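## retry 2 of 3
previous attempt timed out at serialization; input unchanged, resubmitting
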Amino acid sequence: MKIALIGYGKMGKMVKKHATKRGYDIVACFTHPNTSFSQVKNADVCIDFTTPSAVIETIKKLSPFKKPIVIGTTGWDVEAIKPYAKEMGILYAPNFSLGIALFTRLLKKTYKLLSPYYESSGVEIHHKEKRDIPSGTALNLSAHVPGLKFRSVRMGSQVGSHQVIFNGDDDLIELTHRAKNREGFAKGALDAAKWLIGKKGLYNFDDVIEEMLK
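## retry succeeded, writing output
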């Protein structure tokens, strides 16, 4: 698999590390989003970890090449890229962790079981440099649990923690996912990239996971 990396911060470097381990080729590495993407023609797929303000313009610039792209950047308007998905494969996910994908499924089942008896609330904690509040992962979890809202905390170097609390009259039940590092996000992004090659349309990481769990 030949990959073009768009963005070379912490996540871009992590993706490159694991791509090399798997024997994939990094044929282009764009350190700045406002650049020419001519080298993309040599890639099978692109992986974007940049900034929210850059994503839509990046998609516009990539569209003539019709290369599939995996986007891990959060905090932007997904609706704006739907027209481009008619000509290229676009896969967006706020979180590429297998653990979060399974946690989401567990949360949906737990909510169905507990909601008649417990109220739900959430807390998400990320490092102080994370810009979007609440996190994309928190928004995605909220979409699966009616009425669930997260309180956001930005401090230290925490990679990511999402806790859902079910509060009853006599007890509490808590579900928590904590990322130990960024390794899982990079591995998931590479799995998504491999899955996306040859496809057109707009997808998310759940599409990849569903196929993995069959």
